[in-house]
Design brief:
It is built from 20 helices and no strands. With 455 residues, it is mainly alpha-helical.
């Protein structure tokens, strides 16, 4: 191997370095020895670098392959560009890419929308019952509203809305047409109370006091009564007393207090009919008693307040208290009011008490005041109302026929007797028969004959 290497070196030296080493040179031997030594060291380096050369050759091969591939791909790209330039001449070269991107975006959005629609369909399938129920409810509410609007328009067209107002606008229209009608004002107050708006009801009452003419005292009193009812039902004792005092300043105080007593009496009746009678009834009775005593003390010279108190006691079956109150009333009232008070009390006894006690009072009054035919007629009417026709006939006979002694203490005028016969005949027409009516006619003829003979 060394010999071969030496020969190779010599050959290469001859070929490559023939110009450097010449046999004619003086130092030819020295230079040749140095050359040989350098050849040995290069040979060893060649042996050690065989593997590297092989690997480098393989890398070179790969690099050459990759270079060839890159060259071929570069050539293909140039061909595609050439084709693109040929086909897209006259157009924007970016449109193709944008159209491709857009088509991809449409495909993606289409897939997304499809998936959303599928999910929506699933949700609709899951919520079919719930959504359909809500839709039906909305449709029913819409139909109801349309029906109400149609009915309202029809009512406004034919004028029936005024007879049955349902909104604030309806009430305002009615009040604008007739501001002096207490009925419309009270209905307007009731409308606000139905909405649990107590302050608005009070405001309506205050508006009524300003709008109603001062000559319409009765209409104003009706509205005041409605306001007092509101205060006694929803107000406090302080507001109730303030309303009473305010109403007394603008109206007849006696009428205001009598209206308050009537309200409390109705409250007692309502409490008596309620299920919780033990507590509510006792409280209502206490309030009514207190108010009646206050009214009788405040207006002791007015027979109407005493009669109202007597009626309240008799309706409550408190007869002993009523008789005691009658004595107090006769002591407080002037004498000319006693007869009227006793007559009213007798009527109340017929209705709420004992008919025997009522007859006793009426007999006393008729005997003491024989010419007061009004007392007689009231007495007869009460007997007829209670079905005692025979008692009523006897009362008429006591006035018309002569007593056994043929002398009459009380003489009636022809006009008075005419009214007696007319009253008697009218009762017989309603409750009697033909025979009883003939008896009345015969009694009238006899009275005329006696009167003619006496003259």
């Amino acid at each position: 191997d060394e010999v071969d290497a030496l020969e190779d070196v010599l050959v290469s030296d001859r070929e490559d370095d023939s110009a450097d080493i010449h046999s004619d040179d003086d130092n030819y031997v020295t230079r040749l020895a140095a050359k040989l030594k350098h050849g040995d060291s290069s040979a060893e380096e060649d042996e050690n670098g065989d593997g590297d050369s092989k690997s480098s050759s393989s890398d070179g091969d790969d690099a050459s392959v990759s270079d060839s591939d890159s060259d071929s791909s570069h050539e293909e790209d140039e061909k595609e560009k050439a084709v693109a330039m040929d086909t897209d001449v006259g157009f924007d070269w970016g449109t193709k890419r944008e159209s491709v991107d857009a088509s991809k975006g449409e495909d993606e959005s289409g897939s997304d929308s499809t998936s959303d629609e599928e999910s929506d369909d699933d949700d609709e399938i899951d919520n079919t019952g719930k959504s359909s129920h809500k839709a039906r409810k909305r449709a029913a509410a819409r139909r109801k509203e349309e029906k109400e609007i149609s009915a309202r328009e029809s009512a406004l067209a034919d004028g029936t809305a005024d007879s049955n107002p349902e909104t604030s606008a309806d009430f305002e229209r009615l009040l604008a047409a007739d501001p002096n009608s207490s009925e419309n004002w009270i209905k307007y107050m009731a409308y606000h109370l139905s909405l649990a708006d107590i302050d608005s009801a009070r405001n309506v009452a205050n508006r009524a006091f300003d709008r109603i003419e001062f000559r319409q005292e009765g209409e104003k009193l009706n509205v005041w009564t409605a306001l007092l009812t509101l205060e006694f039902k929803y107000g406090t004792p302080k507001s109730q007393q303030a309303a009473i005092e305010r109403a007394s300043q603008h109206n007849n105080p006696k009428q205001v207090y009598l209206r308050v007593c009537e309200m409390l009496e109705r409250e007692v009746d309502t409490a008596a009919a309620s299920s919780d009678r033990a507590q509510t009834h006792d409280a209502a009775v206490a309030r009514a008693d207190e108010m009646f005593l206050k009214v009788c003390k405040k207006f002791r010279s007015k027979k109407t307040v005493w009669i109202a108190h007597l009626k309240y006691l008799l309706r409550g079956a408190r007869h002993e208290e009523a008789h005691a109150l009658l004595k107090r009333a006769l002591q407080s009232l002037p004498e000319y009011k006693h007869v009227e008070t006793m007559s009213k009390f007798a009527q109340l006894e017929f209705e709420h008490g004992s008919s025997e006690r009522a007859r006793t009072i009426f007999d006393t009054l008729v005997e003491k005041h024989p010419k007061r035919l009004d007392l007689l007629f009231v007495y007869v009417d009460k007997e007829v109302k209670h079905g005692e026709i025979s008692v009523a006939r006897n009362l008429f006979r006591n006035v018309v026929e002569l007593p056994d002694g043929r002398e009459r203490k009380t003489k009636y005028s022809d006009k008075q007797m005419k009214s007696v016969f007319k009253k008697w005949f009218r009762i017989e027409e309603e409750h009697g028969d033909e025979e009883s009516r003939e008896d009345v006619k015969q009694a009238a003829r006899e009275f005329v004959e006696r009167t003619a003979r006496s003259k």
